[in-house]
Amino acid sequence: MTNKELLMEKLEKLPDRYVEKVLEFISCLEKSNLETAILSESSLEKDWLKPEEEEAWKDL
Asked: Does residue 2 form part of some domain?
């Protein structure tokens, strides 16, 4: 059984009040990941835009 399947099985057994808390937690995780990606973009952009980076990735 995969982790997703196990999670779905457990969610099915939870009372609605706990399902709501799980949804809030997942929303926080998603927001955190998005914020991290946005914040890191400007610092990584310097390297992404270098000519040698363009050369290294041109065949992909």
From this structure: no
